[in-house]
Write a structure and sequence with these properties.
Distance between the termini: 25 Å
EC number: 2.8.2.-
Radius of gyration: 18 Å
Structural class: alpha/beta
Membrane topology: Single-pass type II membrane protein
Enzyme class: transferase
Number of helices: 10
Largest sheet: 2 strands, parallel
Strand order of the largest sheet: 1-2
Subcellular location: Endomembrane system; Golgi apparatus membrane
CATH class: Alpha Beta
Number of domains: 1
Protein name: Sulfotransferase
């Protein structure tokens, strides 16, 4: 699972690891971005033990925006299947900012970080929270190494409204039986998203941690409008490239 941050990658990982044919690494190894110098043996040593019939999954959402990651993954195995969880880039940016704010309460306002010049509507694309959502740009680096048939895009929105449907497609993509179905999920009203009735390791319900489902910071609607305009051409290019309309409007 190579991306994207605040898209729903943790949910996808927790949901897919319920499948008996999947083993997943719980933490983010950051091998293909930060820890590449440690070598492939180090990376392998982190992985859960699997049978020949099982698929090993890891997730590090920052891979999607790391220039070297596609080449490095390709050099390890050109057959790797890649999952990218995407959501409306405007919502994603606000979620990203909300997360940072919870750790560093003294950062500038969202508006202040978003624009280089607000009156001219110049968006600051060097700010990570904005840059990550330019999916069409990042995707180009991946397509130099991997065909679209090896990349599966999960809708972060549908993951909330129809988790079984989205996970059904993920299982199809991985070539495994549709074991994870409606009966695995219930909707948690407090958090505002679906949770697993049973986790892989115990018979207890499993919801994502406290850091998930935070209430987003309130943003001036005009700022949101300007960001929508900014992302529109990137979104359209992305839809055209992947052949899928995510309806982010």
């Amino acid at each position: 699972v190579v991306g994207v941050k605040k898209g729903g990658t943790r949910a996808v990982l927790e949901f897919i690891r319920v499948h008996p044919e999947v083993r997943a690494l719980g933490t983010e190894p950051h091998f293909f971005d930060r820890n590449y110098h440690r070598g492939l043996e180090w990376y392998r040593s982190l992985m859960p033990r699997t049978l020949d019939s099982q698929i090993t999954v890891e997730k590090t959402p920052s891979y999607f925006v790391t220039k070297e990651a596609p080449r490095r993954i390709f050099n390890m195995s050109r057959d790797t299947k890649l999952i990218v969880v995407v959501r409306d880039p405007v919502t994603r940016a606000i979620s990203d900012y909300t997360q940072t704010l919870s750790k560093k309460p003294d950062i500038p306002t969202f508006e202040g970080l978003t624009f280089r010049n607000r009156s001219l509507g110049l968006v600051d694309t060097s700010w990570n929270a904005i840059r990550i959502g330019m999916y069409a740009v990042h995707l180009q680096s991946w397509l130099q190494y991997f065909p679209l048939s090896q990349i599966h895009f999960v809708s972060g929105e549908k993951l909330i409204t129809d988790p079984a449907g989205e996970m059904g497609k993920v299982q199809d993509f991985l070539g495994i039986k549709r074991v994870i179905t409606d009966k695995h999920f219930y909707f948690n009203k407090t958090k505002g998203f679906p949770c697993l009735k049973k986790s892989e390791s115990s018979g207890l319900p499993r919801c994502l941690g406290k850091s998930k489902g935070r209430t987003h910071v309130q943003i001036d609607p005009e700022v949101i409008e300007q960001l929508r305009d900014f992302y529109r051409p990137y979104n359209i290019k992305f839809y055209e490239t992947v052949g899928q309309d995510f309806r982010w409007e």
